[in-house]
Amino acid sequence: MRRSTPHHHHEEYSVDNTNNNSSGSTSDNSPSDVVSDAPAHQAPPPLNQNDERSLGLITQLFEIAVAISVENLEEAHEMLLDLSHVASPYAPSCAERVVAYFARAMSSRVMNSWLGTCAPLTNHRALHAAFQAFNNVSPFIKFAHFTSNQAILEAFQRRSHVHIIDLDVMQGLQWPALFHILATRAEGPPQVRMTGMGSSMDLLVETGRQLSSFARRLGLPFEFHPIARKFGDVDASMVPLRRGETLAVHWMQHSLYDAVGTDWKAVRLLEELAPRVVTLVEQDVAHGPAGSFLDRFVGSLHYYSTLFDSLGAFLAPDDPGRHKVEHDLFFREINNVVAIGGPGRSGEEKFKHWRRELARSSFLQVPMSGNSMAQAQLILNMFPSVHGYSLVQGDGTLRLGWKDTGLFTASAWTSPASS
What residue ranges define each of the domains in the chain, with the CATH number in brackets? Predict the structure, then answer.
């Protein structure tokens, strides 16, 4: 697979699980509470009173966006004060909840423009808990995990020593399912090493212990190496590679909630690593041309309105999991898309389609297989049938959306330098 690379011990913590007699536990996130995919194509009903109210709120929000786009910040600030009194993130209406969060984000943008500050601190535990909640109440995270696992599994066929690099491992929710399949291979389990990257060493060590415990229970030889840095700040010399390993890199695009990551360096890291497979999952937000706040606003409003609608279709307005996802995850993403464009920071570099960047860097696309499609369909079939999710296979990718809007796209790539 890869050439021999010297060991570099950068904040490394290793667990060797060749002893199969010890036991442990991890949270095995089996799919639950999920949905089948049947697009709804019905004529829209006449607007009722709630629809008219929602339309009025969205119109107000758009007027504020126009004011911000022409730097009329005083007027935008006054309109935002008015809107904040009438739009609530706890409302029964999905549209009103979206408007409330966008209004907060746009208020932050106005303040950033006045004060010259942006990029709030990240509460990593709250963010991880929000991802856990999103995984529990929606198929989107499971879709990303299962389709990526299938592509990695296919790349690891008949390989005895494998190495997974997760560019933002968080709690490692997706890996127990892959471990189980690898442990039960007809040709026997491979030696598995994982390098997990993230901002908190404490959380990385915790994730490593959970994954190690799960691997021991399966009899899967396993080592975990944490690198407590954002992957944009990592170069290949920090990754503990070994001769003869088959390398897979998983890149779940999280740039929408991370305002300060240097994602543009990630492609260079991938070029240096030359993995056999890169699994990439992106959020399909339309960002518009560079420097265009209004286009970015319109694209993100459509995207998050669709996401909020997908949750509201089968979760009550006061559902605590729904509120955690909307407040701790979606609002953070909205804030970074809308408010990040303060003085000296357009934010546009962060919000691009990385499939194009990989293609420009000579990576070759590996079409998502029929097995990946079957995995995605299996996930949808396990959710309540609300006839809204859509699954599309095309251009070598898999895209999961709500009704007619694509929300998450999974793709796989290989380096021409891999072996």
Answer: 49-123+289-339 (no CATH), 139-285+354-414 (3.40.50.150)
